Structures are given as structure tokens and as C-alpha cells.
Amino acid sequence: MAGEGYAFEQTFSFIPLPAKSFSFQQDKDTLALLMKWSMLGRLSAQTYSFDSNFQPYSCETFASCFFKDPQVIPTLRNMKAGVWVPLERPVVSVSAELVPCTKISMELFDPIYSCGILWPSGHVVKCFHDIYTDYDELRQMLQEEDSEHYNVIGRMERKEFLFRLFKHLCLGGELCQYEDTIEPYLSTTKKIYKDLISVQKDADTKISVVSTVFKVSAYDESGLCFPGTQEEEQTFAYLIVDPVKRNVTLFYHIYGVGSFSL
Description:
7-stranded antiparallel beta sheet; alpha+beta; 13 strands; disordered N terminus
């Protein structure tokens, strides 16, 4: 029989939800910190609804449908010379990497307080660097595998979306003014994470994360086209799926010089 042996390929359709916003996008203290970290105006979160049941194993199909959906394409933007611009050419392929997202508290960061990265006051310990004149033990732990503190956060914990978000905020944009204490990084990480991630309680009132997160990149015929057109650690995009509400949020940042005004 014609077609026998071919599996049914699931598809997804999307509708933008422009009225949906997040508290971190309205909070003046958070916006002031994002401006200080040179991320204001370059960090975006947009939500869409979708029409089919989602399972984590379908993340690549989901991402491909998302970036090729006629309702989504007009909402996608890159940054050129400090101005948001639409994608220049159609997306032809997409990569999607599942990102662990299981944390429901900030306990992951507890080891940072007792290993020499922070002073007892919570101030970040400064250190020498061959290239950067203003460097500290926190950034060294985040970026350099030969740092004596690198393994303070375990290999699996480093893969968690919560840790990735913290790292993105600590490293900031092109003209980032780094914090002297860790508290602003942690409080902003917590606020944004709580905004983006969905949780639920089971019968025993145990709380667990229901969101699925995957890091995404889209390519046109010339190469990488979203997020940005050049590989850069601080240019990133994540799709965060709430399978219960059938909503997905595109959370992304284009590295560069952020806005200087709220």
C-alpha cells in the first residue's frame, strides 16, 4: 500500500500573543540593572500559543515549525546597528538542544558562598587577569575551566537553565558594568526564571517544573540568521514551552551595546 511504513509527522501552528508580558519587563529595578549590564533593549521575551500536544522528544520538529510559521516570521527580529530589523531570508534549517530545567529553588548557588568567590559580606572577590583589567572570581568560575572554583557548581547543574540564565546575566552585554556584590545577579535571575518557567503541584503538593526548555538557532541559505548572524556566547535564544497552557515563549538576547535609557 502506498505510503505504508511512513510515520505520521506532527506539525505545529502558532499565534503570537502580543498582550502577554512578563513582570521583569515592567519592573523598573530590573530594567535599570539590565541597562547597567548593557542588555536593555537587546533582551526580548515573546509568547505564542500553539495547537498540538507537545512532548520533549518533538523539540526539533516543534522548533522547525516555529521558525517557518507564517504567523511567527514577521515577529522575529535581529539587531543591526542598534536597530531591530526583520530576518532577511527564509529559514531553511533549525537546531534545537534540550536544556535541563528542573530547579524550583536557588539552592544551586549555595556553594558559591563558601568557596572563596565571595567575601563574607557578599562582595565578589577581585582577581588578576591577563586581558581584563577589572576581573573577579565569579566571572572566572563561570568562564574558565581551569579556574580553581570551576567545579564548585557541578557539571550537571551547569547545564540547568537556571544556571545558564544566571551566567548570561553575570556576563552581560558589550558595555556591561559588573556588580560588586552577587545579590543583584541572583535576585534578577530568580525574577526572570520565575516569570518564564511554569510549575505545578502533584497530589502530595510537591512542586515540579512542567516547562520544557531548548536552546535554538535558525539558519538561512547563507548560514546562521537567528539569533544574530555571528556565533557569540552572549547571543542566545531559548524556546520555553508550557505544554499545559500550550504556550511557548521565545526568550533571546543579541550581544552588543544596550540602551542607555529606560
